[in-house]
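Q: Hi! First time asking for a complex rather than a single chain. Here are the components, and I think there are two in total. Is that enough to go on?
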Amino acid sequence: MEIPYTTTARPDTGLYNAKLGIWLFLASEVMLFGGLFSAYVLLRVGAPEGFWPHGWLSVTLGTVNTLILALSAITTLLAWVACKVGDFRKFKMFHAFTLLLALTFLCVKSYEYHDKWIHYEIHLKDGRIADGHLEEQDDQTVTILGRIIPGDQEQLLYDLRSQKNIPKDEIKLDRSNILKMENYGPRHNTFTAIYFTMTGLHALHILGGCVVIGFLWGPGTRMWKTDHERFTNRIEISGLFWHFVDLVWIFLFPVLYLT
Amino acid sequence: MENTVKQFPPFREAPAHADHGHDHDAHHDHGHDHAGHEEHHEPGWMSKYIFSTDHKVIGIQYGLMSLLFMLFGFGLMILMRWQIANPAKPVPFLGPLLEKMLGQVASHGVISPELYNSFGAMHGTIMVFLGVVPLAFAAFGNYVVPLMIGAPDMTFPRINMASFHAFFLGGLVMLVSFFIPGGAAQAGWTSYSPLATTIPTNGQAFWLVGMVLLITSSLLGAVNFIATIIQLRAPGMTWMRLPFFVWAQFVTAFILLLAFPPLEAAGLLQLMDNVAHTSFFLPTGLAVGGRLADISGGGSPLLWQHLFWFLGHPEVYVLILPAMGIVCEVIVNNTRKPVYGYKSLVYSALFVGFLSFIVWAHHMYMTGMGQKIATFFQATTMIISIPSVIILTCLFISLWGGSIRFNTPMLFALAFLPMFGIGGLTGLPLGLAPADLYLHDTYYIIAHFHYVVAPGTIFGLFAGVYYWYPKITGRFMNEFWGRVHFACSFVFMNIVFMPMFLQGIKGMLRRMSDGAANYSAARVPGAIDTLPDNIIHLNHFILWAAVALGVAQIPFIINVFWSISHGEKVTSDNPWHATTLEWQTPTPPPHGNFTVEPQIARGPYEYSVPGAPTDFTPQNDPADKKATVAH
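A: Yes, that's all I need. Here is the structure of the assembled complex.
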């Protein structure tokens, strides 16, 4: 038994099975991320005036990552073209670039995560708030690189865009003076929560794409010789997924970094 | 005709020979290849029954699993009904077992309020996500849809297998959660936040992980169904020649594809709330047990409800559409005449599918989301009843003037119509905010949606089991016991759910583990608006009717297994004299389904065509008989 239209297009729909399948899958993905984006909208609209963070994320790193993904979209396309014209070496080269770029993206992302993870907001017993990156800590003291602000000006922590040259001093705090200490992890507020969740889910998609493209680049190339057309289709399908993942980032970047 | 069929080379077995398929030598070689091929690939037990990629085996896997889950969910319900009728009294027979298995929450065999809540949440979850949807969509859809459209299998057989395995794992996670410390999820099948996060049990996290697996399963299934229906229709099977069951499954698949992901998103966020202590659905100033919770706050409980019901309402149509499809097939087959208003049925199903995405907030009139929003959703809710009524009316009118065969599947299909009608019509007051404010969260709504799903959908599913059983096994189910099963189910189902309307109208709230005893006139004499004794006493009545309903399923269970080996054998591949393609295959259909690629020449319901030799003309009967004879 053989299932029809696995490689050739059905005349009246103009599609082979997997291509229709991936588009349906992507439609479902749109709804998944759509749900998360609407959650973002509701949380942001519901945040109290002045307490939605601005400028917490590095626009430079965000831009770098955007360019990396845009470039990987191009190499994915070129890899598919190389398949179409039957140039094996070029295919290998372009998809090697795709994989490298994807891994670079993940490295930059993990650096950004780490940066938030070691960033602490420390409420002191005298009402002031210390905020900055953790340098070192022991049983008695905590040292951060950052600033201390009065307790009634907490809003300063939220709108970083309007402040120029935020001081970064080495501040040593006695643990006995600390009321509460919390890093900028997901539980810090709804912004970090949605930031980690959405970019985390996106990173998982990148990782999934890496596995698939890595397979097609490595052991999967056996099919190049046995069933070249089907292999080209596979590259096209995984490429469509990859473009979708890029597209999600194109939405995530302005929503999280630029506003 | 069946003899001619067997002379052709097996359908699409070897495309290389396709060009000279009529050449005698090639034909011979091919047959030889085929035999060798099968010998070489004799599948082992594991790959035949556990890791099978055959849509029919997967359909049966889904069917058996979901029937088991339904039985389990029903068992939970019986335990709950016992607790409602006899609050804080030990459960007879099962009490010691419960205590042994679940420990503290069932001490002395009494169902504690926490355990009652777990049972309630899991009854809903299991019945909807592990019982009815997998049976209606995955089991029947998998078995029947490829056959009906003349396809050799689903488009992605391995993804199909993965879909079942994800479903199995999801079910396992749900079941395991009963035995963790704190027990299974307790926040209802709707899992409203912040309740779902503040209850001290990890059961909710298990529930969410289970749901993510189940959603993955249905996503894979939905992609497969849509792709199969679009890509693998046999030559001549145009859209308007598809049986209505296929249309119903097609719309259902789209609903699953597009409505489930937002719940997955919501599930991820709630999982973050429960595990990473974020505050997506937790408002500022949330107090738990009199203390301010250690959370950042700033979240929105309403957000959960929006995301949940964005799935939740389309889900209702996932439950009902496949059953409507089955009922349509059975009714048309047994009235021996074409369905009334085929195009109306199709367009109504499509319209229902579309509208189901914009009615969700009628579950949320009580949340204070605002009158303008409520007005919009009232309007759409009233509109969506129109296509549902069109479908029901078409099926009713189809009966007109037919010479009806009253066999077991037909009895269930006929019962579906008024039962679903009651469920649908009692839903109208709930769709209007003023009436809903009073009826919300009472037993009225329990009665309403159970009328839609239990005597509605499940009767449709029973009809499907009795109807397609001969195709799956080659034997009929026992007709006498089928009728006993039907009569008892019909009577007791109504005795269970009809009194609940009364209880609800009198103001008895759902989700109370003491069966509203606290609000009874007996407990607080003299207070106004208490529940009269006769309303409370209905709980006993319902309990024993529910037990009787359970007993009524025993003939069915025995019938299913007994008939595999002892049922009356079918004498042809088409015992019901049906027109649709699933009956034009060998019985049971082999791997690859059709012995010859079917060529479809006509619509799905050509019954009693004037001048035709029989009162049914199968879809693949050649349009021009003379041409076949010459061939």
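A: Chain B has a mean pLDDT of 91. Let me know if you'd like any chain examined more closely.
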